[in-house]
Amino acid sequence: MIKYCFIIIALLAVSCKKENSNPNSDNIVGRWQLTSYGGGFDGKTYYPAANEVTIITFNADETYLKTVNGNTTANGKYSLGQVLSIYSGKNDNALKFDNQSNWNVISIKNTTLEINSNAYDGGGSTYVRK
Protein backbone atom coordinates (compact mmCIF):
# COMPACT_ATOMS: atom_id res chain seq x y z
CA MET A 1 0.00 0.00 0.00
CA ILE A 2 2.81 2.42 0.88
CA LYS A 3 4.45 1.59 -2.44
CA TYR A 4 1.29 2.69 -4.34
CA CYS A 5 0.99 5.92 -2.32
CA PHE A 6 4.60 6.74 -3.17
CA ILE A 7 3.97 6.12 -6.88
CA ILE A 8 0.86 8.33 -6.87
CA ILE A 9 2.68 11.16 -5.08
CA ALA A 10 5.61 10.88 -7.49
CA LEU A 11 3.29 11.04 -10.51
CA LEU A 12 1.49 14.08 -9.11
CA ALA A 13 4.75 15.87 -8.42
CA VAL A 14 6.03 15.23 -11.95
CA SER A 15 2.79 16.29 -13.61
CA CYS A 16 2.49 19.62 -11.76
CA LYS A 17 3.73 22.60 -13.66
CA LYS A 18 4.51 26.02 -12.23
CA GLU A 19 2.91 28.86 -14.15
CA ASN A 20 4.87 31.98 -14.90
CA SER A 21 3.73 34.56 -12.36
CA ASN A 22 5.03 37.57 -14.28
CA PRO A 23 5.17 38.33 -17.97
CA ASN A 24 8.63 38.56 -19.45
CA SER A 25 9.52 42.24 -19.45
CA ASP A 26 11.86 41.68 -22.44
CA ASN A 27 8.79 41.14 -24.61
CA ILE A 28 7.30 44.56 -23.92
CA VAL A 29 10.52 46.60 -24.00
CA GLY A 30 10.71 48.72 -27.13
CA ARG A 31 8.71 51.19 -29.21
CA TRP A 32 5.05 50.53 -30.05
CA GLN A 33 2.83 52.51 -32.42
CA LEU A 34 -0.90 52.81 -31.84
CA THR A 35 -2.95 51.25 -34.67
CA SER A 36 -6.46 51.19 -33.16
CA TYR A 37 -8.43 51.77 -29.99
CA GLY A 38 -11.98 51.40 -28.82
CA GLY A 39 -14.39 48.92 -27.39
CA GLY A 40 -15.81 50.40 -24.26
CA PHE A 41 -19.41 51.53 -24.09
CA ASP A 42 -20.05 51.88 -27.82
CA GLY A 43 -18.07 48.80 -28.89
CA LYS A 44 -16.64 50.60 -31.93
CA THR A 45 -13.07 50.47 -33.17
CA TYR A 46 -11.34 53.76 -33.95
CA TYR A 47 -8.15 54.46 -35.86
CA PRO A 48 -5.70 57.32 -35.39
CA ALA A 49 -5.89 60.13 -37.93
CA ALA A 50 -3.45 59.76 -40.82
CA ASN A 51 -1.41 62.72 -39.51
CA GLU A 52 -1.33 61.46 -35.90
CA VAL A 53 1.39 59.08 -34.71
CA THR A 54 1.14 57.82 -31.14
CA ILE A 55 4.18 55.93 -29.83
CA ILE A 56 4.63 54.35 -26.44
CA THR A 57 8.13 53.29 -25.46
CA PHE A 58 8.68 50.77 -22.67
CA ASN A 59 12.20 50.74 -21.22
CA ALA A 60 13.96 47.90 -19.40
CA ASP A 61 14.13 50.00 -16.21
CA GLU A 62 10.29 49.94 -16.06
CA THR A 63 9.85 53.50 -17.28
CA TYR A 64 7.68 54.50 -20.22
CA LEU A 65 7.24 57.47 -22.53
CA LYS A 66 4.14 58.15 -24.60
CA THR A 67 4.31 60.66 -27.45
CA VAL A 68 1.88 61.99 -30.03
CA ASN A 69 3.62 63.40 -33.11
CA GLY A 70 6.85 63.56 -31.09
CA ASN A 71 5.35 65.53 -28.19
CA THR A 72 5.36 63.87 -24.77
CA THR A 73 1.84 63.19 -23.48
CA ALA A 74 2.69 60.84 -20.59
CA ASN A 75 5.70 59.35 -18.87
CA GLY A 76 6.52 57.54 -15.66
CA LYS A 77 6.86 54.03 -14.29
CA TYR A 78 5.04 50.85 -15.25
CA SER A 79 4.65 47.48 -13.55
CA LEU A 80 4.13 44.03 -15.00
CA GLY A 81 2.30 41.26 -13.19
CA GLN A 82 -0.78 39.10 -13.39
CA VAL A 83 -4.42 39.85 -12.69
CA LEU A 84 -7.64 37.87 -12.70
CA SER A 85 -8.93 38.73 -16.17
CA ILE A 86 -12.57 39.58 -16.81
CA TYR A 87 -12.01 38.25 -20.34
CA SER A 88 -10.67 34.76 -19.62
CA GLY A 89 -11.57 34.25 -15.96
CA LYS A 90 -7.94 33.23 -15.39
CA ASN A 91 -4.80 35.00 -14.26
CA ASP A 92 -3.46 36.81 -17.31
CA ASN A 93 -0.45 39.01 -17.97
CA ALA A 94 -1.07 42.56 -16.87
CA LEU A 95 0.38 46.05 -17.04
CA LYS A 96 -0.18 48.98 -14.71
CA PHE A 97 0.96 52.54 -15.29
CA ASP A 98 1.98 54.55 -12.22
CA ASN A 99 -0.91 56.98 -12.68
CA GLN A 100 -3.58 54.22 -12.77
CA SER A 101 -5.12 52.25 -9.94
CA ASN A 102 -6.32 49.34 -12.09
CA TRP A 103 -4.35 46.72 -14.00
CA ASN A 104 -4.70 46.34 -17.77
CA VAL A 105 -4.73 42.90 -19.36
CA ILE A 106 -2.01 42.64 -21.99
CA SER A 107 -1.28 40.25 -24.82
CA ILE A 108 1.86 40.24 -26.97
CA LYS A 109 1.73 38.14 -30.12
CA ASN A 110 4.56 38.50 -32.60
CA THR A 111 4.70 42.26 -33.26
CA THR A 112 1.29 43.15 -31.80
CA LEU A 113 0.61 44.45 -28.30
CA GLU A 114 -2.94 44.63 -26.98
CA ILE A 115 -3.65 46.62 -23.82
CA ASN A 116 -7.19 46.18 -22.53
CA SER A 117 -8.78 47.72 -19.48
CA ASN A 118 -9.67 44.96 -17.03
CA ALA A 119 -13.12 46.48 -16.51
CA TYR A 120 -16.44 45.90 -18.20
CA ASP A 121 -16.93 48.41 -21.02
CA GLY A 122 -13.36 49.61 -20.41
CA GLY A 123 -12.02 49.46 -23.94
CA GLY A 124 -8.50 48.85 -25.18
CA SER A 125 -5.74 49.71 -27.61
CA THR A 126 -3.69 47.82 -30.19
CA TYR A 127 -0.07 48.67 -30.97
CA VAL A 128 2.54 47.33 -33.41
CA ARG A 129 6.23 47.11 -32.62
CA LYS A 130 8.37 49.73 -34.36
Structure description:
With 130 residues, the chain is mostly beta strands. Helices cover 14% and strands 48% of the residues. The protein has an eight-stranded antiparallel β-barrel. A hairpin with a 2-residue loop joins strand 4 and strand 5. The chain is globular, with a radius of gyration of 19 Å. The relative contact order is 0.19.
Compose a concise summary of this entry.
This protein has 130 residues and is mainly beta. The chain is built from two helices and nine strands; from the N terminus they run ααβββββββββ.
Count of helical segments?
2
Query: Could you give a short account of the major beta sheet?
Result: 8 strands, antiparallel, barrel
Order of helices and strands: HHEEEEEEEEE
Helical percentage? 10-25%
Structural class of the helix and strand makeup? mainly beta
Strand order of the largest sheet: 1-3-4-5-6-7-8-9
Cα separation of the termini: 61 Å
Rg (CA only): 19 Å
Are there runs of 5+ residues with pLDDT below 50, and where?
Answer: 3-22
Estimate the mean pLDDT confidence.
85
Q: How many β-strands, per DSSP?
A: 9
- Shape, principal axes of CA atoms: globular
Strand content: over 45%
